[in-house]
Specification:
Catalyzes the activation of phenylacetic acid (PA) to phenylacetyl-CoA (PA-CoA). The mean pLDDT is about 95. About 30% of the residues lie in helices and about 25% in strands. The chain is of the alpha/beta class and about 425 residues long. The protein binds adenosine monophosphate and zinc ion. Zinc ion binds next to loops.
Length: about 425
């Protein structure tokens, strides 16, 4: 086994990966076809029999599964094992409508914990580390999912949950926490609060943070790394594919390896559904290859990314994807221009004056769309001299204009004045129809 491997599958050759994928793909199609009425009907309609899957290219013949499909099968319509074999339920975060429920067998939980442990091991986490999970627990998979992986690896694992900065710091100090899992939006809030308490986040024993569950830019990562003097690794996952442990950065910090022995990943044009050319941006589509209780075929994640070309210096041949560049349903159109909230964050984070939080608001009046960006300014820059603040406002507006081609109204607000959430951050509000 490769000396850096937690699991030998990490360093498989492409031939090994692809041969395993084909065996598992055939297996999953055969199982859902036999055991699930929804999938059988779908596959029959598309003229796909399990025997007709002969190569990995045949996956393109399988119909997609969308979030609406999963909702239509709520609560357990897609489960293919007897219900008494289920041991855990999670739901995906969604603000409105019927949730999506994902149920797991004990084997599913074991493979998930193994995958998650593999991710943590890859970035240098070891059993000697103390792991503090600062994400929410409950139905959200970033709680128990990451927790089980850290325990599986053998770390002492602290289920701290988010919020309560004073307790968070006390735990870090008292138990000498070396690794944390934290949402990007909360990482900066935590850092700023520690500073306000007169302490330097960089003095804490944290050396690694696993950061994910919501999109963030490279500039945002840099900020977190600098603030805490630790390494930050991007962690990607979604409830429909278990949760965290789907794709993870290695120590090169250059793209996220997708664990292809467990998932089949494709990138498609969101309009046509066809595979994009190699290296082009499109929507990530994923198939579970090993899930027992509730397999999902060709799930449309809505997440936009691309496969990165070339091989990774770390030696792992599992394809790498770029950090999530946005969601196909995230984009908004303002004055006819397509804009992704990530583009705005990218510009904002380059200003040292900009604090930890921002909010993009889209309104309209009888002339047209109005794009406003409320930006928290760090305490030390929030001076009384109006000219200085005006200057800053203009610089931000200009920088944004050259990125998104629309000039937004910039509203500078004080630190800690924008709403924060315990879970995923709300960065964008479209208020155009609410008037
Ligand atoms: P949930 O199933 O509720 O955990 O939400 C999953 C969604 O969170 C994904 O489809 C992504 O949109 C987002 N997400 C998770 N991890 C990341 C990440 N590292 N970067 C960007 N977005 C992420
Ligand atoms: Zn790598």
């Amino acid at each position: 086994m490769h000396q850096d491997a937690y699991d030998p599958a990490e360093f498989w050759s492409r031939d090994q990966i692809e041969a395993t994928q084909l065996t598992r793909l055939k297996n999953v199609v055969a199982r859902v076809y036999k055991k699930n009425a929804f999938y059988r009907k779908r596959l029959d309609e598309a003229g796909v029999s399990p025997e007709s899957i002969r190569s990995l290219d045949d996956i393109e013949r399988i119909p997609f599964t969308t979030k609406d499909d999963l909702r239509s099968q709520y609560p357990l319509g897609l489960v293919i094992v007897p219900e008494e074999e289920l041991v855990r339920l999670h739901c995906s975060s969604g603000t409105t409508g019927t949730p999506v429920a994902i149920a797991h067998t004990q084997n599913d939980l074991n493979t998930w914990a193994d995958l998650m442990a593999r991710c943590l091991h890859m970035v240098g986490v070891r059993r000697e580390d103390v792991f503090q999970n600062m994400s929410g627990y409950g139905l959200f998979t970033g709680g128990l999912g990451i927790h089980s992986g850290a325990e599986r690896l053998g770390c002492m694992t602290i289920p701290a949950g988010p919020g309560n900065t004073a307790r968070q710091i006390k735990l870090v100090k008292d138990f000498h926490t070396t690794v944390a899992h934290i949402l990007p939006s909360y990482a900066l809030i935590l850092g700023e609060r520690i500073r306000e308490m007169g302490e330097n986040p960089a003095d804490l024993p944290l050396r690694i943070a696993v950061v994910g569950a919501e999109p963030y830019t490279a500039a945002f990562r840099q900020r977190i790394e600098d603030l805490f003097n630790m390494k930050v690794y991007n962690s990607y996952g979604l409830s429909e594919m278990n949760g965290p442990g789907v794709a993870f950065e290695c120590q090169e910090q250059n793209g996220l390896h997708i664990w292809e022995d467990a998932y089949f990943a494709e990138i498609v044009d969101p309009e046509t559904g066809r595979h994009v050319a190699p290296g082009e941006v499109g929507e990530l589509v994923m198939t579970t290859l090993v899930r027992e209780g509730m397999p999902i075929l060709r799930y449309r994640t809505r997440d936009l990314t691309r496969f990165l070309p070339g091989t990774c210096p770390c030696g792992r041949l599992h394809h790498r994807m770029d950090r999530i560049l946005g969601r196909s349903d995230d984009m908004f159109i303002c004055k006819g221009v397509n804009i992704y909230p990530q583009q705005i964050e990218d510009v904002l984070m380059k200003f040292p004056e900009v604090g930890r939080n921002y909010l993009i608001l889209l309104d309209n009046d009888n002339v047209g769309d109005i794009l406003r960006v409320q930006v928290e300014i760090r305490e030390e820059y929030f001076v009384e001299d109006l000219r200085v603040l005006r200057g800053l406002q203009n610089r931000i507006a200009h920088a944004l204009r050259s990125e998104i081609l629309v000039t937004p109204r910039i509203e500078l607000v004080q630190s800690n004045s924008l709403p924060v959430s315990d879970g995923k951050a709300v960065r964008f509000k479209d208020q155009r129809n609410s008037k």
